[in-house]
Write a structure and sequence with these properties.
Layout lengths: L10 H4 L7 E2 L4 H11 L3 E5 L5 E6 H14 L8 E5 L4 E5 L3 H5 L11 E2 L3 E2 L5 H11 L3 E5 L5 E6 H9 L2
Parallel strand pairs: 1-2, 7-8
Antiparallel strand pairs: 2-3, 3-6, 4-5, 8-9
Length: 165
């Protein structure tokens, strides 16, 4: 009788392959529109060779806008209420859709986080999870040896993985 061998799940086995991404030359307004349309809070930034060079998230954009608003001393700070489906609560944001129009000329490269955490398709899911926890991030990108984007693993992908047993 052959021994019962269980294989260790890898990044490739739980990653999402339908990747939504932006180019570093896209505007912040473009990035927010793409994230809103696809109901995601962050997307990889790729170059012309599909290499993952960064990540832009809603928190990156909020941080950029907050820093920009603080730099504009004496301006009136505008807020807008919006419904967050994740928390099921109304939240207040320092920027509105109108205000984001002011950031149509700001490129993703100015607000993105460079050198995002990446793993290979062969990385065990336990290692992926530990890296996400250690770095306090919600997503990790799966790349090949040339840093070309292959997939993304979000915290929700782990929830699905556990739920499916």
């Amino acid at each position: 009788m052959a021994p019962n061998v269980t294989s260790t799940p890898t990044a490739a086995s739980i990653m999402s392959r339908g990747i939504v991404s932006v180019d570093e030359s896209n505007s912040l307004q473009d990035a927010m529109q793409i994230m809103t349309e696809h109901h995601v809070s962050g997307v990889p930034v790729i170059d012309e060779g599909r290499r993952c060079i960064g990540v832009i998230s809603t928190s990156d954009i909020v941080s950029f806008v907050e820093a920009d608003q603080e730099a504009l001393e004496g301006t009136i700070q505008r807020t807008e209420n919006w419904f967050n489906p994740e928390t099921q609560k109304w939240e207040e944001s320092i920027f509105s859709h109108d205000m984001l129009g002011e950031y149509d000329l700001v490129r993703v490269s100015e607000a993105m986080t460079s050198n995002p955490l990446t793993v290979t398709p062969e990385t065990p899911v336990t290692v992926v999870a530990r890296r996400m926890v250690d770095h306090g991030i919600h997503r990790v990108f799966v790349v090949d040896a040339q840093q070309r984007l292959q997939g993304v693993i979000s915290a929700f992908d782990f929830v699905e993985f556990v739920a499916e047993g």
